[in-house]
């Protein structure tokens, strides 16, 4: 019974994660068909700092609530804990500081940017997103702490459905990029209201400086890692809009959102499940995690993720044209294809970051994020003088260089050499590339020389590639197939 309950929670966690990340991206792509690339870019630029800073509430404060031990009243555990109230007021104080920063940024942006899109006004309205998540950060954490995963998933789906309805109405009546702003604000406000009602929690008093100081180190440590990790895309999105214009910002925003859907489909569920699995293995092994176990995880993750990323590269043109229209797709296809090249390093990190966390070396994963940020600033930002494609390409190159540096440091910690780890995840990608090339070549020829519609190619190419992929796996990565069969039997 306990195992069945755990599997059910795992399933609802997958639904929750996809609805949070992939669901938002799906709604965005549907809306993108009704908006110009400049309107999308205006929203992307305005939302970049808000989307980055909201991590403090959704990860920092919420996770701090999850890991805080509740106090007991007699034999009962209570949520009326001074620590939770202190975290609430920390969240509100941080929101006040963030609001001041965003207002100043919006004022500067309004003074220096010459565009007919109201980016600065959008940014000011989107502050409501931060306020909403600040108010509900503790209730959200309590719901997660109490394992109300199913309720959270259903809440998220319902709220997104209602918010999407508002966005469609706004777009239909010609509000442009404000439709996306309306979706973001309504989604945050409704989610927060429902979370507060479900948790039934309110702060038990006013700000207590002593308690707030006591909770600050833990919340700051959790938030710091998340803020640093999320800063890279925020910096790129905002800088592209500022230097290359809103059209380029719109193209990068669309590419990011599709990439977000791919992550939610194939890597987020693995990321959620692999940590407890590795933890259980380490407990049996007195705190050690065998290199062979990690290698198996890399094999399976590479095998599952490769078709998503490599396949998207192959069908990006007709797929985006079908979903968002030919005009917006023409600007976004190449940035999306370049981002999909990140599939291999992201698949590697999905496994290796969790393995390092289990064996007590999470700092190495944090250092990798620092290297990525520095590399992006040094190499990608100068490419702003060229094009959005050049910026994205430099970002991809930096990601691979950092990945190779990361692999070199694994063996002393995990007992798994860099070449073995890289080969485990890379072999399925090689097999997928070999399988996709013929179909990609045929699709490119047919689109250029025949009247076959793009939707027909979207049906035929994935089916032909799937068969070729299985065949290539038997030749190039037979171990990955073996490990997948074992995993499915458990």
From TrEMBL:
The chain crosses the membrane at residues 21-48, 86-110, 122-139, 151-173, 180-202, 232-252, 298-324, 336-359, 379-407, 428-448, 454-481. It comes from the Bacteria. Keywords: Cell membrane, Membrane, Transmembrane, Transmembrane helix. One of its GO terms (cellular component) is plasma membrane. It is found in: Cell membrane. It is a multi-pass membrane protein. Belongs to the polysaccharide synthase family. This is Membrane protein involved in the export of O-antigen and teichoic acid.
């Amino acid at each position: 019974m306990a195992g069945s309950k755990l599997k059910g929670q795992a399933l609802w966690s997958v639904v929750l994660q996809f609805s949070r990340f992939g669901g938002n991206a799906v709604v965005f792509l549907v809306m993108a068909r009704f908006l110009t690339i400049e309107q999308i870019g205006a929203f992307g630029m305005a939302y970049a700092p808000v989307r980055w800073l909201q991590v403090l509430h959704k990860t920092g404060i919420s996770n701090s609530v999850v890991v805080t031990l509740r106090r007991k009243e007699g034999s009962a555990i209570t949520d009326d804990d001074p620590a939770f109230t202190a975290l609430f007021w920390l969240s509100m104080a941080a929101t006040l500081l963030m609001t001041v920063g965003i207002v100043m940024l919006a004022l500067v942006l309004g003074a220096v940017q010459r565009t007919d899109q109201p980016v600065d006004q959008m940014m000011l309205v989107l502050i409501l997103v931060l306020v909403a998540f600040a108010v509900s950060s503790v209730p959200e954490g309590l719901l997660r702490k109490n394992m109300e995963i199913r309720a959270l998933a259903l809440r998220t789906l319902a709220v997104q459905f209602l918010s999407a309805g508002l966005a469609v109405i706004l777009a239909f009546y010609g509000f442009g990029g404000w439709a996306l702003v309306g979706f973001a604000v309504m989604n945050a406000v409704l989610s927060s209201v429902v979370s507060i009602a479900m948790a039934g929690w309110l702060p038990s008093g006013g700000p207590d400086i002593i308690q707030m100081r006591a909770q600050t180190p833990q919340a700051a440590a959790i938030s710091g890692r998340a803020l640093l990790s999320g800063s890279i895309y925020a910096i790129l999105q905002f800088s592209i809009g500022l230097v290359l214009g809103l059209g380029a910002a719109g193209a990068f925003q669309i590419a990011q959102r599709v990439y977000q859907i791919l992550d939610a489909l194939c890597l987020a569920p693995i990321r959620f499940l692999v940590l407890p699995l590795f933890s259980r293995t380490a407990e049996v092994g007195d705190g050690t995690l065998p290199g062979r176990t990690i290698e198996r995880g890399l094999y399976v993750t590479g095998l599952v993720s490769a078709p998503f990323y490599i396949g998207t590269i192959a069908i990006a043109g007709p797929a985006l044209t079908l979903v968002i229209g030919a005009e917006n797709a023409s600007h976004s296809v190449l940035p999306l294809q370049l981002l999909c090249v990140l599939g291999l390093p992201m698949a590697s990190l999905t496994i290796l970051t969790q393995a390092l966390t289990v064996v007590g070396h999470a700092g190495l994963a944090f250092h990798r994020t620092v290297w990525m940020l520095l590399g992006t600033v040094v190499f990608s930002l100068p490419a702003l003088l060229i094009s959005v494609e050049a910026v994205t390409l430099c970002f991809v190159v930096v990601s691979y260089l950092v990945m190779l540096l990361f692999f070199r440091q694994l063996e002393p910690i995990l007992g798994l050499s860099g070449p073995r780890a890289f080969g485990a995840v890379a072999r399925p990608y090689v097999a997928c590339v070999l399988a996709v090339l013929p179909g990609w070549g045929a699709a490119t020829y047919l689109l250029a020389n025949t009247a076959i519609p793009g939707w027909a190619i979207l049906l035929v190419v994935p089916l032909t590639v799937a068969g070729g992929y299985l065949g290539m796996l038997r030749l190039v990565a037979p171990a990955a197939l073996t490990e997948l069969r074992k995993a499915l039997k458990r």
